[in-house]
Amino acid sequence: MFETLQYLHLSNTELRPAHWYEGNHKYPEGNTAESSSLSHRVLRQFTSTLIETHEIQRMLPKSNGNPQPTVIAMQPIDWRRTNVDNGQREARNGGFVRRWTNALMLKNSPPIENPTCVQRFRRALLCPPHGSLAYNLTKIIAIIALFLAFIAILKAEALPGGNFWGLLVVTVCAMVGEEIAKKLRLPGLLGMLVAGFLLQNVPGIRAATSITPAWSSSLRSIALVIILLRAGLGLDIVVLRRLSKSVASVAFVPSTIESCAVAVASHFILGFDWLWSFVLGYLLTAVSPAVLVPSMLALQENGLGVDKGVPTLLVAASSIENVYAIEVFSVLMSVGFSTTSLTMQILQAPIEIVIGVSYGLATGVLFWFFPHNGHPSKSAYRFIILLGAGLTAVFGGNALKYSGAGPLATLIMAFIAGYEWRKSDAPSHKEVAEKLAKLWRYFQPVLFGLIGAAVSIEKIRPETVGLGIAVIFIGVLVRFFVTPFATLGANLNWKEKMFASIAWFPKATVQATLGSKVYDYTTLVLSTQTVPDPYLLRVQQIGIQMLTIAVLCIVITAPLGALGITFTQNRLLQKKKPTELEVSEREFIEEELSGGKDNMVDSLFPRNLPKKRHSEPNMRMFPDEFTFT
C-alpha cells in the first residue's frame, strides 16, 4: 500500500536510521526532534510502523546548514523473494499461526448450500463451538460440574460403586442413546431403553447394578409425578365432560378382557393356578404412562386429534386403568399370601380411590387461591407447590400402604388447579406447564434409563421365553381388537379408533415396578423359615416366570408402541381445525396485506402520494433557519 509513496518530507530535521530512535538514544547536537514539525513521539511511532512493512534506505546528504527539507527514498518490499526469506518473515510476524487459526474459526467459513456429510462434520468442529456440538458439550460440562460437587458432598456415594455414580452413568448413556435414536429417526425413548438395558446386561459393566432398588424406585416415582402433573394440566375439561362415559369404557373394558385372556393363556400354556394366572393378567394389562403421556402431550402441541379429544381420552383413561390394574393385582396377591383379612383386601381399592379423589380435590381447589393472582412470582410458586403436593401424594401413599391413591390424587390435583388457572390466568398456566416440561427433559433419561436397567437377562429363564412371548401376544391382540369397541361412544372414525388401539399397546412402568413383587416376597419369607414351605417354593418358581414375562413384555411392547405412535400419528389423526375467531383474524390479516382498496394499511400509509420534483426540498424536514439555493 506504500508503493505509490515515493518521498517523505520532514521540515528542518534529518531522519536517522530506525534503530536510532529505539531505546534512550539522543539526537546529535543541533538535530533534535524538537525542531521538527512532527513531535518526537509521532516520529518514533511512524518510523516503527514503516520499518515493519518497508525497507528504508537512507539517501540523505549530510547537513550543511541549508534549511532545505530532507528526503527519504523508500523502496517497497519485493514479496517474491526466496521462500526462506518469506518463511522467516511469516514466522516473525506470526503469519503461519494466524493463517491456521483463521481457518479454524467459524466466522471465516461461510455456510455451504447442500453440504455433504463430511462438510457438515468439518463445519461442526469449527470454533467457537456451536450447534448440536455446543449443546452436548454444555450438557457434559454441567454434568461434570454437578458430579464434582456431589463427590465433595456425598463422597463414597458419588464414587464408582455408589448410587449416585451409577445414576450418573445411566443418565448420561441414556442421553447419548436418545441422540443416536433421533439421528436414526427413531423415538428417543427407544434409545434410552436400549442404553439402560445394555448397561445392565453387558459383561464387565456394573454401573447400573450399583443403584439400589430404593434409589431406583424413588427416582421412577419422581418422574411419574412429573408425568402425571403434566397430564393433569393438559386435560381439557370440555372434552372430558363430553367423553366421560368413553373414558370409563376405555379404562376398564380392554384391560379387563386382556387380563382374562392372559389368565386363560397362562393357565393352559404355563400351567399356573387360576389365582396366579389372574395375577399375571393384571400385571401385564396396565399401559405405561411413561410412554403414553409424553406422546399424547406432543399430539396436543401439534394439534393432532385434538378436535375429537383423542389425547385427553387416552391420558385420562390410562391413569384410571393404572389404578385399576395395580389395585386388582395387589388384592389378588394379598389373597394368594393371605397377609390381611379378605374384607380389607376387597375394600382396599375403594379406599384408595376415595383417598386419591379427596386429596386431589382439596389441594386443587386450595391452589386456586394460593398464591393469589397479584403475587409477583405466582408462576414459580404455583410450580413449587404443585410439585411438592404431587410428591407428597405419591410417597405418602406408599408410606401408608395405599400406593394406588398417590398417582390418582396427583392427576386430579393438577387437573382441578389447571382448570382455574387456565380460565383466570392463561399465561401463568402456560408458564407452569413449561417449567414442568423443562423438568421432564432432565428426568426423562433417568426414568427410561432405569426402566431399561431393570431388565436383567440373568433373571430370564430360557424355557419360559417362547411360552411367555406367546402369552404376551395373545393378550396384546385381544386388547388391540377390543379397544375400538370400547370407543364407540367417543364419536371417533375408524382411523382414530385404530390409533387408540396402537397407543394402548406399550407397557413398561407398572411391569417394571410390580414384575418382581411375587418373587421378592416369597424369597424374603423363605429366608426366614428353617423348613421351607412347599407352597411358597412353588409360588417362588411362578414368581421367577412372572418376572421373566414382565421383562419380555417391556422389551417387546414399549419400543413397538413408541414406534407405532410415532409413525402412525400423522396418518391416522386429523390436524386441528381453526376456530371461527382464528379464521376471521387470518382473513383480516390477509386482506390487509393483499393491498385492497380503502383498507387500514392504505389509510395509514397512502400509496398514491403526489409526486414531487427531485429538486424540490421538503421544508418540513429541516429547521426554519435552513435555506436552499
From TrEMBL:
<feature type="transmembrane region" description="Helical">
    <location>
        <begin position="381"/>
        <end position="400"/>
    </location>
</feature>
<keyword id="KW-1133">Transmembrane helix</keyword>
<keyword id="KW-0812">Transmembrane</keyword>
<feature type="transmembrane region" description="Helical">
    <location>
        <begin position="311"/>
        <end position="337"/>
    </location>
</feature>
<keyword id="KW-0472">Membrane</keyword>
<dbReference type="GO" id="GO:0015297">
    <property type="term" value="F:antiporter activity"/>
</dbReference>
<dbReference type="Pfam" id="PF00999">
    <property type="entry name" value="Na_H_Exchanger"/>
</dbReference>
<dbReference type="GO" id="GO:0016020">
    <property type="term" value="C:membrane"/>
</dbReference>
<dbReference type="InterPro" id="IPR038770">
    <property type="entry name" value="Na+/solute_symporter_sf"/>
</dbReference>
<feature type="transmembrane region" description="Helical">
    <location>
        <begin position="542"/>
        <end position="567"/>
    </location>
</feature>
<comment type="similarity">
    <text>Belongs to the monovalent cation:proton antiporter 1 (CPA1) transporter (TC 2.A.36) family.</text>
</comment>
<feature type="transmembrane region" description="Helical">
    <location>
        <begin position="464"/>
        <end position="482"/>
    </location>
</feature>
<feature type="transmembrane region" description="Helical">
    <location>
        <begin position="439"/>
        <end position="457"/>
    </location>
</feature>
<protein>
    <submittedName>
        <fullName>Mitochondrial sodium/hydrogen exchanger 9B2</fullName>
    </submittedName>
</protein>
<feature type="transmembrane region" description="Helical">
    <location>
        <begin position="184"/>
        <end position="202"/>
    </location>
</feature>
<feature type="domain" description="Cation/H+ exchanger transmembrane">
    <location>
        <begin position="171"/>
        <end position="565"/>
    </location>
</feature>
<dbReference type="InterPro" id="IPR006153">
    <property type="entry name" value="Cation/H_exchanger_TM"/>
</dbReference>
<feature type="transmembrane region" description="Helical">
    <location>
        <begin position="133"/>
        <end position="153"/>
    </location>
</feature>
<feature type="transmembrane region" description="Helical">
    <location>
        <begin position="222"/>
        <end position="240"/>
    </location>
</feature>
<feature type="transmembrane region" description="Helical">
    <location>
        <begin position="275"/>
        <end position="299"/>
    </location>
</feature>
<dbReference type="InterPro" id="IPR051843">
    <property type="entry name" value="CPA1_transporter"/>
</dbReference>
<feature type="transmembrane region" description="Helical">
    <location>
        <begin position="247"/>
        <end position="269"/>
    </location>
</feature>
<feature type="transmembrane region" description="Helical">
    <location>
        <begin position="349"/>
        <end position="369"/>
    </location>
</feature>
<feature type="transmembrane region" description="Helical">
    <location>
        <begin position="159"/>
        <end position="177"/>
    </location>
</feature>
<dbReference type="GO" id="GO:1902600">
    <property type="term" value="P:proton transmembrane transport"/>
</dbReference>
